[in-house]
Amino acid sequence: MKLVRFIYENKVCQGVLSHDKINIIEGDMFGTYHVGDKTVSLDEARLLAPCQPSKIVCIGLNYYDHQLEMNEFADDFPKIFIKPSTAVIAHGENIIRPQGVDRVDFEAEMAIVIGKTAKNIKKGTAKDYILGYTCMNDVTARNIQKQDGQWTRAKSFDTFAPMGPVISTDVDPYSTKVELLLNGKVMQNSTTEKLIWNVDFLVEEISKIMTLLPGDVISTGTPSGCGAMEIGDKVEVVIENIGTLTNYFTGG
Ligand code: MG
């Protein structure tokens, strides 16, 4: 099932997407809901980010090949940082280069969308708290990241958290292809089989630190091949059984 949020006739709606048709949901995908008979064509809907996270928890250096290309190595626990909710943009929207920032990189990542409140969850029960998975681009001002030595400023600019287009409930988080296309050319091509810290571990450990709320997102990290965008570029995160998240890089 592919869940979407969208605007139709000036109202924010939720629905289930199949092919180019959306069945409108009555209720809330994060609570109780019923999939109604009323349908909207995808052409008539403007897709929004599929959830409204209170926080986006990101994992750094979760693929060994990315550690090698960054020449930065994780210890025995993942590097965890947070992107603000104000950085979120939807499928089709523009990533805006901040004034004075000379290098902005893409990072294709599979992201977990939390379905119900999770705190201190027990080992092996993460899936009970996960609604589904979405595509995420962990956009990064790379030079600022290196200059600052910590990552908040580099990762938090407005528009630096594209996500969507759907939340898919039909993803095997242990074996899913993750790709990034820049102007149609494959730049990143990997699989979540290579995640050092898997989805179960991440949800369990992060829920020991902070309460995860419905709609919160955990972005699992990027494989090797990340690189810079130029103004006018089209950037696509393509994840098996989720879809393609397309955004455009523009000047500020
Ligand atoms: Mg990342």
Task: Provide structural commentary.
The protein is mainly β. The chain folds into two domains: 2-47, SH3 type barrels (Roll), CATH 2.30.30; 56-251, Fumarylacetoacetate hydrolase, domain 2 (Alpha-Beta Complex), CATH 3.90.850. It has helices spanning 64-70, 142-148, 152-155, 199-209; strands at residues 2-8, 11-18, 21-27, 33-41, 46-47, 56-60, 79-83, 88-89, 94-97, 108-114, 130-137, 161-168, 177-182, 185-191, 217-219, 234-239, 243-251. The strands form two sheets. Strands 1, 2, 3, 4, 5, 6, 7, 8, 10, 11, 12 and 15 form a twelve-stranded mixed beta sheet that branches. Magnesium ion (MG) is lined by residues 58, 60, 107, 109, 138, 221-222. Magnesium ion is lined by residues 58, 60, 107, 109, 138, 221-222.
Our measurement of the CA-to-CA distance between the termini, rounded to an integer number of angstroms, reads: 36 Å
CATH class of the largest domain: Alpha Beta
Structural class: mainly beta
Q: What oligomeric state do the depicted chains represent?
A: single chain
Please count the helical segments. 4
Helical amount: 10-25%
Order of helix and strand elements from N to C terminus: EEEEEEHEEEEEHHEEEHEEE
Compute the CA-based radius of gyration.
17 Å
Q: Write down the CATH topology of the largest domain.
A: Fumarylacetoacetate hydrolase, domain 2
| Count of extended strands | 17
Strand content bin: 35-45%
Instruction: Please identify which CATH superfamily of the largest domain we are dealing with.
Output: Fumarylacetoacetase-like, C-terminal domain
Q: What would the principal axes of the Cα set say about the shape?
A: globular
Total domains, how many? 2
Low-confidence stretches: none
Mean pLDDT: 96
**Biggest β-sheet: count, sense, barrel?**
12 strands, mixed
> What ligands are attached or bound here?
magnesium ion
Provide the CATH architecture of the largest domain: Alpha-Beta Complex
